[in-house]
Amino acid sequence: MxxxxxxRTNNGEIEDLDVIVVGAGFAGLYLLDRxxxxxxxxxxxxxxxxxxxxxxxxxxxxxxxxxPGPIYQYSRDDVWRxxxxxxxxxxxxxxxDYFRHVDEKLGLSRDIRFNRRVNEAQFDPAxxxxxxxxxxxxxxxxxxxxxxxxxxxxxxxxDLPGLSDFAGERHHTALWPQRGVDIAGKRVGVIGxxxxxxxxxxxxxxxxxxxxxxxxxxNLALPMRQKxxxxxxxRRMKEKYPEMFDRRTKTFAGFDYDVLAKSALEVxxxxxxxxxxxxxxxxxxxxxxxxxxxxxxxxxxxRAAYKFWRDKTRARINDPAVAEILAPTxxxxxxxxxxxxxxxxxxxxxxxxxxxxxxLRTAPIERVTRGGVKTSAGEHDLDVLVLATGFDAVTGGLTxxxxxxxxxxxxxxxxxxxxxxxxxxxxxxxxxxLFVYGPQSPNAFCNGPTCAEVxxxxxxxxxxHLRQRNYTWxxxxxxxxxxWRAQVLALADATLFPRxxxxxxxxxxxxxxxxxxxxxxxxxxxxxxxxxxxxYGYDGFVIS
Length: 544
Ligand SMILES: Cc1cc2nc3c(=O)[nH]c(=O)nc-3n(C[C@H](O)[C@H](O)[C@H](O)COP(=O)(O)OP(=O)(O)OC[C@H]3O[C@@H](n4cnc5c(N)ncnc54)[C@H](O)[C@@H]3O)c2cc1C
Known about the structure:
17 helices
């Protein structure tokens, strides 16, 4: 739609802004504050009815963060100083409270349009701006469009025969009713054992009359080691916050710890075992991204990590047949190449009489019926069906918007041939469009708020650079995005990640091109590339 057409359909008026940011999660809110403080006219358009991004939508029982709360927040001291999480791994409710605190501190809501889902965006080269049309009928224009739609904006619901026949309550975890769902005393089925499946199963096992967990792939989940955080602990932690926030941009995954500087194969068996034990006691992601440097690169090193995880896990499960499904003797894929979840008592729930496990590898789902789920081995009667089936991750949120650039092609059409995204933030043919936490950035391998700040700062500086020089156009070049793509794919090829059908590769979505969607070179290398690009006058971009 051209600017003239847009004005015609909107009584001659469209709101004209410097920047439209889409999404009110960590990334969108960070940019709103940064750009507003630079004096730009910015608004955030948010599909949901509240702040927090994924923490608004994912209100299923047990929803909780897998990054420790202290590091899963903004690094600004005027925001963290008066805030404390009550648990090391805060619940979704506490994350919602945190976003309310941020809003009170920074006054963000006044520039956010809630319940506004962006459906279309068309670049108008004559005016060098974007025309943005939303589901509420509004049309607005802005010089720059910054998509902060996150990794998980498009829930994936598998095409199971009979799904709509189910007579009970049926919900995807990311579309869970905000009013909540009463699962107490009900027969609950959970399809999927990714992060959300593990969390909801732990919760349902304690409340439901019966819980049936349908597992396709074992989740090599790690112990969360949840802790209550009292005032004293928080006070001591806060003394180290500045150091911690500084460190999180210097580590592989944006946390305050890093992979060890040694191979699992260069140490004795005893030392390896001792290190695995130490990391296991720390818990969280330490046994994954705080472990030996070659765990995700070398088959033999990986095998040692798997064996350690398997033996620890099997010891917690009473029935050897159930243990073999949850923690098989032979790994179904290498350790850590699918995102391990953090669990509190996930494996113990299968020792309860009211919990059963269905192995979908040996008994696939044939159909959903009025009364439950029928697999090739029998029928499971259910009152509530939970679809913990994940997302069309990383690209789904971006490609669900009808975004048209200068070549007449939509972003979805362009990426159907494989993702191209210079530094994971911009695309040739789509001028003045930028995104955060997008494909080919560290996304899934970076703590969310760290990535929001790193990429948010880079984008804010770019927009400031353009404004200072009266430029109105910035666009990635084709050679630059091709070179970046080649680098992202080559990095992933050198790892064990391609050995699993994971959402990192889009492999959970039928028909999606199978390619690594994240930069796996680590955050410091990514930051260096972004800095270098800016220092060389935004090398790889055309600016005019
Ligand atoms: C259940 C769950 C647990 C997670 N746990 C962790 C964790 O422990 N550690 C970690 O680092 N990461 C975690 N993540 C990843 C998480 O996405 C990031 O931590 C972080 O929330 C990313 O922030 P964001 O602002 O980029 O995106 P999001 O939080 O995803 O926010 C995106 C926002 O964009 C909005 N939006 C999308 N499309 C449109 C549209 N077309 N129009 C208008 N609005 C739109 C959405 O409604 C949403 O509010 C988790 C994700 C999920 C789903």
